[in-house]
Amino acid sequence: MKRNPSGIWPRARYVASLLLLIGAAVFAQALPQIIQAPNPPNAAAQQDKPYVVLVSLDGFRYDYVKKYSAPNIVALAKRGATAPDGMIPSYPSLTFPNHYAIISGLYPEHSGIVSNRFYDPERREHYVFTDRKSSDDGTWYGGVPLWSLAEQNEMRAACFFWPATGAEIAGKRPSYYLEYDASIPNDARVAQVLAWLRLPPAERPHFITLYMSDVDHAGHDHGPDSPEVAEAVKTVDAEIGKLASGIDALHMRIDLIVLADHGMAKVDGGWINLDQWADLSNFIADGSLLYPKTDADAEKAFESLKSASSKFHAYRRADVPAALHYNSNPREGDPVIVLTGPYLIRAHAPILPSGQTERPPMAGEHGYDPLGMPEMKAFFLAAGPDIRNGATLQSFENVDLYPLIAQILGLPVGKIDGDAKPLQSILKNQKPN
Question: Which CATH architecture has domain 271-361?
Answer without folding.
Answer: 2-Layer Sandwich (3.30)
